[in-house]
Design a protein that fits this description.
The chain is of the alpha/beta class and 158 residues long. The protein contains 5 helices and 4 strands, in the order E-H-E-H-H-E-H-E-H. Helix content is 39%, strand content 12%. Helix 1 links the parallel strand 1 and strand 2. It is globular. The two termini are 14 Å apart. The structure holds 4-nitrophenyl phosphate (4NP). 4-nitrophenyl phosphate (4NP) binds next to loops.
Length: 158
């Protein structure tokens, strides 16, 4: 099973989701069953580490973003990954426009997968203050647990 977190720049939200989900999956004993990656819609930050504010906020909760480097989405991602998880509605919309017809149902919102009525978007923290990065972590930690349940329902039992 391969999952790809996608945001706009791949320096704030999707690297955070990648690190949090990596830890959640490892703690559930699923580290080797799930391949996890992240990318952005734009290439502007390609090759750069995550935003220092994201790295710092994540580090305070025990997540390591230091080895990640931004990359833009490529056509092959729509074939390679079973789930492409958009961090907000704009990203989901853009991914659906880019996706080949055969991969359209692999594009889903990261939040609200199984819970209608729950928060559906992880707001972009880039132009705000540190509290936005804490909000990202709160939403991503909740969403990562829901995603693990969803993914485990598609995996063989332990
Ligand atoms: P991200 O945040 O999509 O969560 O990585 C952003 C990072 C950079 C920009 C926008 C959002 N930007 O416009 O450069």
């Amino acid at each position: 099973m391969r999952v790809l977190f996608v945001c706009l720049g791949n320096i704030c939200r999707s690297p955070t989701a990648e690190a949090v989900f990596r830890k959640v999956a490892a703690e559930a004993g699923r580290g080797s069953d799930i391949e996890i990656d992240s990318c952005g819609l734009i290439s502007y930050h390609e090759g750069r580490p995550p935003d220092p504010r994201a790295t710092m906020a994540a580090e305070q909760r025990g997540y390591d973003l230091s080895t990640q480097r931004a990359r833009p989405i490529v056509d092959d991602d729509f074939e390679r990954f079973d789930l492409l998880l958009g961090m907000d509605d704009d990203v989901v919309r853009s991914l659906r426009e880019m996706a080949p017809a055969a991969s359209a149902d692999r594009v889903v919102p990261f939040l609200g997968l199984d819970e209608p009525g729950a928060a559906r978007e992880v707001p972009d923290p880039f132009y705000g203050g540190m509290s936005g990065f804490e909000d990202v972590l709160d939403l991503v930690e909740d969403g990562a647990r829901a995603l693990l349940d969803h993914v485990e329902s598609r995996l063989d039992p332990h």
